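Sample intake sheet
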Amino acid sequence: MVVVKASMPAPFPNPASEGSPKFAHPSEEEFARILDFYGLRWDYEPISFPLEWNDDGPVEMMSPDFYLPDLELYLELTTMKQSLVTQKNRKIRKMRETYPDVNVKLLYRKDFHRLLAKYGFGPLSGPDVPRISKVLFTERQIGQKVEELGKALSADYAGSQPVLVGVQRGMVCFMADLMRHISLPIRMDFMSISHYAGEDGPGIRITKSLDIEIEGADIILVEDIVDTGMTLNWLTGYLHSLSPSSVEVCALLDKRVRRIADVEIKYVGLEAPDEFLVGYGLDYMETYRNLPFIATLRPEENS
């Protein structure tokens, strides 16, 4: 929120920002595409800030190129032309002095991805994420959902000491973040399974079983993504065979459109489309797990 002295004009909406934006420079349009790629909301020149004024009104103003509401950040883009850099730096300093509660930055084109990476949107290692088609869920969106799930589990299991069970490896990011939002004493363990083709058809075998005893315990099976539900149905059946007090499923992503088995998922974070997803633990040929967001791959990479 902007705090303005009584004697100074308040910032006001820029009518020109309404409707489809008409970018003043190709670099602005390029930056808007990058923001869209990372799923980050933006407004183009939404606010004008008076910097100097007299009795008749403002005589100098600044309308930062972009406002990113998710980051509460105003951005002014610039090129390497020194005369423009000097002028914009002067206005940025004046804006910070006049509106100290406003977060505003001057940004060079080469710094686009570096700045976004600082806030968790995309890696620092390069300007492009190869083969990524679209960021579906940002790091902020994921974090909010994981926090909500952690609070729900904390409320529902109050007075209990549930056991989180993860099936390696896609759930590693989700489970690590989820447990930090559960305000209860918990235990955790991991399983590994593999699929095989047997004489009687495809099957599932356990390659790493649980190390702790779960008889009489409340089990929370933590899943990164559920699609057909076939594997999940087998897993919940196996866990029930170990005589726990209860078994519930907590899934970050639910690809309901691909459901075959009728399985109950009590705790769901986000609904996922029928596309190949990577990031936040999800992989494509053991890559992309470390992306902080969840994205789709380009169609040619999935064929």
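Comment: Residues 1-6, 123-130 have pLDDT under 50 and may be disordered. The helical segments are 26-37, 82-98, 112-118, 139-156, 172-179, 230-240, 299-302.
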